[in-house]
Structures are given as C-alpha cells and as structure tokens.
Design a protein that fits this description.
Elements: H1 19-27, H2 45-53, H3 57-71, H4 77-83, H5 90-98, H6 120-133, H7 146-158, H8 162-172, H9 185-193
Helix pairs in contact: 1-8, 3-6, 7-8
C-alpha cells in the first residue's frame, strides 16, 4: 500500500515507512551528520565499475517519463505501475521502491489531484528523481536487500525509532540526503545546469526543478 511519509496530509493504515523516504524527510529538517566514515567499498574501483555497468539507460528513460506523467496527473497510479520497468539498475529499484511507490494508494485507481495531490516536498523530490534518471550518473547510495529493509523496518518499530536514527546517521555518511538520489549538491547542480525537460509536464508546466538555495 502506497503511503505519504513525507507529509501528514495522507496517511493509510497497515504500512511501513521506507528507510530512504524517512531519511530524506529528516534531512530536509537538518543537515546530515558527516562525522561517520564512508563505507570504503563504495569508493573502490571495483564497486564503481559494478555500478557503472548496471546503468540501464532505457529503463531509466522509461521510468523518468512515466514519473513525469504521474506527477503531472496525466496518468493514474495503476497506469504508472504498468509502465515501471524491471531492471538490475539499483537506481530503478531504489527510486521506485523507496519513494515513487509511496506517493499513492495502490488499492484504488486515482490521479495525483485533489485530496491525493502531492505536497511541495514530495513534488520537489519527484522532480529530483526524474533529473537523476536522465543524468546518466551511477546510483552510489548504499542499497539494502529486501530482507535487510524488512529487518530495519521492524527494528525501528521495536526500538521506538532508535534503529532508524542509527541507520540515518550511517546513511548520511555516504552523501547529502538533502539531494537524494543525487549523492551531493554538486551532482544536483550539474544536472540543473543541463536540464533535460524544458517544456514542463502538461499544460500547467508543473515540471520545474527546484533551483539550489542561494542561486538566482
């Protein structure tokens, strides 16, 4: 069941927070703690080669376009789900599973309008996801297996949020969560400097990336 974990305007029962969505929400309220050492594997040449090999440009283009249609209310949530590609690219799995799937209820067909309209934070994050999917950058954030994600979710519930806070601090050591799925502000700035969509989403031109803070 899809749930809005970045806003309190739409909450559905029997659902669990995505680790990434929760961490990004926290990062929106505070700067990441950079006192933790990054995972040495993430910076290794072997790891970088593996991530580069798993960039699936066709699947990314498909998900990016479908996401534009979804947030622009041009398609329903069911139509969006039908277009999500299967891919070994971690960017596809993480962006869909950790964020996009949480934007809507999967028990009924609807568009993201009216009571289901996205909050500004959700819209900004969705736009960042589209920009990342079109950037050609490898997804370098740590990726939890399905089992690890389930364990973290239940551990967070059993420890009244302590496990989630520990995970957030560890995750923040890998990059700046304020710009997820980009790894850093510089990556996001580079993508903004080479926009892939200039005409907006639909007639209302709703697809507009958020400029960096402090820029014109």
């Amino acid at each position: 069941m899809g749930v809005d974990f970045l806003s309190t305007s739409m909450t559905l029962p029997l659902s669990f927070p995505s680790p990434i969505a929760t961490a990004v929400s926290q990062a929106a309220r505070q700067r990441p703690n950079n006192s933790f050492k990054p995972n040495p594997l993430r910076g290794s040449a072997q790891f970088r080669r593996w991530r580069l090999m798993t960039i699936d440009q066709q699947a990314r283009a498909t998900l990016a376009e479908s996401t534009r249609w979804l947030i622009g209310a041009r398609i329903t949530n069911f139509q969006f789900d039908d277009t999500v590609p299967k891919s070994a690219d971690p960017a596809i799995r993480e962006i869909y599973n950790q964020f996009l799937w949480l934007l809507y209820c999967d028990l009924r067909e609807h568009r993201l309008i009216g009571a289901d309209k996205l909050s500004q934070m959700q819209r900004d994050m969705a736009v960042r996801c589209v920009l990342f999917l079109k950037s050609g950058l490898p997804y370098l954030w740590p990726v939890l297996s399905r089992g690890q994600s389930v364990l973290l979710t239940f551990g967070n519930l059993l420890t009244f949020g302590l496990a989630g806070r520990i995970y957030f601090r560890w995750l923040s050591s890998a990059g700046d969560m304020s710009y997820w799925p980009f790894l850093s502000q510089s990556q996001y700035a580079a993508a903004l400097g080479a926009p892939v969509y200039l005409s907006g989403t639909g007639a209302n031109k709703s697809f507009k990336p958020m400029p960096l803070r402090g820029t014109a």
